[in-house]
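Supplementary Methods S3. Complex input for the D-glutamic acid-bound model.
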Amino acid sequence: MLHPPDLKFHDPMNPEPIGVFDSGVGGLSVLRAIREQLPGESVLYLADQGHVPYGPRPMNEVRRFSEGIVRYLLGQRSKLIVVACNAASAAALQHLRQVFPEAPFVGMEPAVKPAAEGTLSGVVGILATPATFQGALYASVVERFASNVEIMQETCPGLVGLVEKGELETPGTRKILEQALLPMLRRGVDTIVLGCTHYPFVIPIIKKIAGEGVRVIDPAPAIARQVIRMLDAAGLRADRETGGTIRYHTTGDPEVFSVVLPRLFDATGEIIGMVWDGDILREG
Ligand code: DGL
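Predicted complex, serialized as structure tokens:
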């Protein structure tokens, strides 16, 4: 079994990276927040673009992919794993904590609590993929926090694929979002929760459709704060204010990744092509 780096060997001058993964480029919205709050941390980012989208896939398949990715990231001495994907968190977070009991994990869940607390109209819209809506994690946050609000759910089919191509403000993205949002707005939704890490990249167009009066919740800054809390609790924070590096990995085409990356996020880094060898991930 793989373990996170032993604290005994933790070297604050040459700190281990944080491992972050998603089905594709969506997790870059989380990486962006981590980078803003922790510029001294190095990050290994893994995009499983060979398998994107995760949302419509069976849960056990997403669980298998997630386990292979985490095994790779821990093998690269990641000190903490951020599951920067709601679908993978829904399908695999519990399983990952069992398989890698000594690794600290931060996962995603739709931000239903702040939405339910803040809504004035009492109607909240949630945009996420089918895997997230099917998971026990989502059912549990709705049950715990949203008993007094009306919830409208939408999966936005096709939107993940467009963000993967770097299509953020095109007629295609607008059409999908209008189909999702207009019925919600007619019903009085005043808060929209982004329950998929790809969706923060289309916030500008969501705001154009919904208007500035509607609150859009991107959970990434809260996730980055949770990363800080966990690193501090374990004494694993990098002992430097800046200078963290990013290394990107994709199971898709590194050329395509290098073209789309600057449309989403301005931090450069080496891009490594990866291949699946059965359930094992290795550099290709
Ligand atoms: N970005 C992912 C999420 O947060 C998954 C998108 C997908 O692959 O369907 O759910």
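Residues 18-108+221-283 form a domain with the Rossmann fold fold (CATH 3.40.50.1860). The pocket of D-glutamic acid is lined by residues 22-23, 26, 52-55, 85-87, 129, 132, 160, 196-198 (CB under 6 Å).
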